[in-house]
Amino acid sequence: MKVLSVVGARPQLVKLAPVSDDMSNTDHTHVLVHTGQHYDAEMSDVFFSGLGIPDPDVHLGVGSGSHGAQTGSMLTALEPIIDSQRPDWVLVYGDTNSTIAATLAAVKLHVPVAHLEAGLRSFNRRMPEEHNRVLTDHAADLLLAPTETAMKHLATEGLAERSVLVGDVMVDVCLKVRDAVRASGEAPHDLPTGIDPSEPYLVATLHRPDNTDDRDRLAALVEALAALPVPVALLAHPRLVNRAAAHGIELQQGAIQVGRPLPYGGLIAATVHSRGVVTDSGGLQKEAFLLGRPCTTIRPETEWVETLEGGWNVLAPDPHLMGDTWAGVATRPAPQTDIGAPYGVGKAAQTTIDVLASRCS
Ligand code: UD1
């Protein structure tokens, strides 16, 4: 079997890691294409080196742009690659512009497409990711779902026959890296200057357009983070840095200590040792849950609804409305409830490969 994986953005590199690792233990051929959607070393290269992913076979170097321009450039660049490679499967990951571009390029060439992390829904049509995932699911030939909830969404949309529950590949990588962090016994390093890892601190990230693009909203969120009673390690995505500078908002204020995005191992170490997480990232919500840290999500909804069970994750979109309670939520202790295994047990990549191989024509 020949599988051609298309990735481009940071969270996709995390999902790729266990697939790439498990593929390397088989006779299958794995071709890796990086669109170049993310290109800063700390958004891309460190994930390849840190997670042991081989260098991409093809790097398209597409870079940033408006949604249409970026997706269009990827589509144009991917078409000849997929056409010349003619894999048994094009494997796409998650919900970014790289995902929808690869899906469109492949289906129009009649090359089968499998979508890993299919069936997630926020039902929020303001999110670019929601369009990407719905359109990808309806175009793809095989839908590899991480959860029962995702399977239900796919069935509701008439896609049950193309859907298979494989579990969540992020569990594979998160637990493996957590175990390595624990075994090393090391305190987290590369935290922002001003964060003492032996004292309580929160890990925070903020990058979604709905939180960063409007000046008043971003200013209110930064103010709320700055007012927290615990130091906040704000691992700033380039989009946040750019938007804050454009809006004239100082990120380094009050409790906030600004740092750069961390490599995956660094992020897991920082989260394990933290008091909790405040974020608008889908991946980090789930990592906090898997690592047993309470998460406060700065969004009105989440695709990862299982994290809400038992109060591990709390949706707190508007610090203005919640006043002092927002700080109380963000600094609450970890619940004592058992999380169960709603995302599987860490074998999703192997299951994915088995399902792909069994459906090779
Ligand atoms: C993308 C995904 C989002 C995912 C996020 C993870 C889409 C629509 N969104 O959002 O689902 O959660 O990745 O990070 O695909 N930039 C840099 N260097 C980089 C990459 C980006 O400076 O290496 C800056 C550029 O100014 C760019 C902006 O960040 O315009 C946004 O990058 P982009 O890839 O368009 O979207 P993300 O916000 O990263």
Number of E-type strands:
13
The assembly state of the depicted protein chains is single chain
Q: Would you give the CATH topology of the largest domain?
A: Rossmann fold
**Hetero compounds:** uridine-diphosphate-N-acetylglucosamine
Distance between the termini: 9 Å
Helix proportion of residues, in percent? 40-55%
Q: Tell me the radius of gyration.
A: 20 Å
Please provide the ordered H/E string of secondary-structure elements. EHEHEHEHEHEHEHEHHEHEHEHEEHHH
Summed up, the domain count is 2
CATH class of the largest domain: Alpha Beta
**Class from secondary-structure proportions:** alpha/beta
**Name given to the CATH architecture of the largest domain:** 3-Layer(aba) Sandwich
Q: Enumerate the strands of the largest sheet in spatial order, edge to edge or round the barrel.
A: 3-2-1-4-5-6-7
| CATH superfamily caption of the largest domain | Glycogen Phosphorylase B
Q: If you average the pLDDT, what whole number results?
A: 96
Please provide a written account of the structure.
This protein is 43% helix and 14% strand. The protein has 361 residues and is an alpha/beta fold. The chain has two domains: 2-168 and 344-358, Rossmann fold; 175-330, Rossmann fold (3-Layer(aba) Sandwich). The strands form two sheets. Strands 3-2-1-4-5-6-7 form a seven-stranded parallel beta sheet, with helices on both faces. Strand 6, helix 6 (148-156) and strand 7 form a beta-alpha-beta unit. Helix 1 crosses helix 15. The structure holds uridine-diphosphate-N-acetylglucosamine. Uridine-diphosphate-N-acetylglucosamine (UD1) is lined by residues 9-11, 37-40, 43, 64, 95-97, 128-129, 207, 237-239, 242.
